[in-house]
Every structure is written in structure tokens, then in C-alpha cells.
Amino acid sequence: MRKAFIAGNWKMYKSIPEAVSLVQVIRAGVHTVQDVDIVVCPPFTALAAVNEALKDSNIDLGAQDMYSETEGAFTGEISPLMLKDVGCRYVILGHSERRQYFGETDGLVNKKLKTAIKFNLIPIVCIGETLAERDAGKAKEVVANQFEGSFQGLTAEEFERLIIAYEPVWAIGTGRTATPQQAQEMHGLIRSFLKDRLGDTVERVRILYGGSVKPENISELMAEPDVDGALVGGASIKGESFIQIVRGSLLEAKGSGKVSSS
Ligand code: 13P
């Protein structure tokens, strides 16, 4: 039984005042929702103010990246301890934009996620193929390789302390969402890799879908057996649409019996 999980990746948007007013709108819109884990991931500069604005709410705070070391001479980087300090519970790692524009490799993602887990941050680890890779019939192979590389050497216990996001690069910011069948095919594949490593506890690991998630498509995506939630970009920085996505995930999650009572 997996609880629905909806996270907003705000990317490089929102000043501090804009971030606070957005989170106030979201907070008011979802305060009665109990059966969904709700997370917002603002830019680093807004984390402290958003943390303050989220006090005593049912929304958790996440960051969009971090470095794999705890402290040191790493100009421009942010450590897991700093994220804990500012109130983060989650951290997105290995997002395709980090891989594509900043050269992040599976090896670095692997280091980062092990450090995050060590310091009790819950990593949301992103994997997914590009359009060229899908068109070449290599989507499964690419995702299998990213899975191997990113999760190398992880213990079963560590796997239970992370969240995986399948984000096909061709669906990110393009308005072209994967069909529920395409999402399920890859989520099922990822769960089969997890099963090889974890056995039956595989049922506890949540796999999110990301890529042009909107209020209009969340329910059909959530209806798939291995889609446990969403990592939302563009639609997460508009209060009303994020609220509707949270609510949409809940309705469908209830219908499919995926909600846990814990
Ligand atoms: P969009 O929802 O804007 O396609 O972005 C998805 C994403 O990258 C979430 O991390």
C-alpha cells in the first residue's frame, strides 16, 4: 500500500515574496488533504522563507539539488547539512536538467543520494530517456543503465528511504505527456529492477511520474498500478493547478486502493 506523493519542482522561478505568496495559496488549498504526501521544492534562495510559511502545515519542504560532501571548499555548492538546517526533508537529485546542462553523471548522482540518505534527507532520484533515445528504441536500455549507475551499491534499507521519479526528457516542459500506458510500461520496468534488489519490500518504494503533469491528466496517470505520484514542474508554480493536481491524485488513489492508513 503506497501513499500518493505529489511534489512541485519550482525550478529557477520565484522571488522570495512570490514564493511565500504561492505557498500560502497552496497551503490554504490543500490543508484538509490527508492521504497525499505533498512537497514543494523552491529555489535555494526561497527555502528559509517558504519553510517559515509552511510551519504546522501538511506540506513538506524539498530542495532541487545538493552536493555530495558535507562541507568544504566547494564554491557555489550546498551541503545536505545546510538543507537540513533550512528545514528540508526531501531533495531532488539527478534531474535531467542537471544531467543535460551541468554534466551530472550517474556516478555523481549515486554519491549524492548516498550522502543524502546518510543525513536523513529523502532523495527523489530522477531517471528517464530523451526523445532521440526513445525514437531509437532504446528507452528501456537507457533507463536500465541509469538505474544501475545511479543506484549502484545501495542496500535494501537505503532503497526504502528514497523515491524514484521517472521523467522522460521529451515530456518535460513540452506539453507532451507520456500516455498512462507509456508511463506504466516504464514504471513497471523500474519496479521489476527494484524487485530484483529488494524482493517483496519493493511494494513500499514509490515511483513518481514527471513530464507535463496537469490537473487534466493526473487522475489517469494515477490510475496505473505503478504510478504512485507525480513530480510536477510548470503546473506546480501556479497555485490553483498544483492544488487541483494534489486533489486529483487523491481521488484516484482512493479509487484504486493505493492509499495507506499510515
Ligand atoms: P514539467 O511539469 O514542466 O513538464 O516539468 C517536469 C519536471 O521536470 C519536474 O521535475
Description:
- The chain has 262 residues and is of the alpha/beta class.
- It has a single domain, classed as Aldolase class I (TIM Barrel).
- Helix content is 42%, strand content 15%.
- It has 11 helices and 8 strands.
- It has helices spanning 16-30, 47-53, 80-85, 96-102, 106-118, 131-135, 139-150, 156-159, 180-198, 218-222, 239-255; strands at 4-9, 36-41, 59-63, 90-93, 122-127, 163-166, 207-210, 229-232.
- Strands 1-2-3-4-5-6-7-8 form an 8-stranded parallel barrel, surrounded by 5 helices.
- Helix 1 (16-30) packs parallel to helix 11 (239-255).
- The radius of gyration is 17 Å and the shape is globular.
- The N and C termini lie close together (10 Å).
- List bound small molecules: 1,3-dihydroxyacetonephosphate
- Global Rg: 17 Å
Order of neighbouring strands in the sheet with most strands: 1-2-3-4-5-6-7-8
What global shape is seen? globular
Q: What keyword list fits this structure?
A:
single chain, 262 residues, alpha/beta, 8-stranded parallel beta barrel, 11 helices, 15% strand, globular
What's this entry about, in short?
With 262 residues, the chain is of the alpha/beta class.
Secondary structure topology:
Layout: E1 4-9, H1 16-30, E2 36-41, H2 47-53, E3 59-63, H3 80-85, E4 90-93, H4 96-102, H5 106-118, E5 122-127, H6 131-135, H7 139-150, H8 156-159, E6 163-166, H9 180-198, E7 207-210, H10 218-222, E8 229-232, H11 239-255
Parallel strand pairs: 1-2, 1-8, 2-3, 3-4, 4-5, 5-6, 6-7, 7-8
Helix pairs in contact: 1-11, 5-7, 7-9
The chain binds 1,3-dihydroxyacetonephosphate (13P).
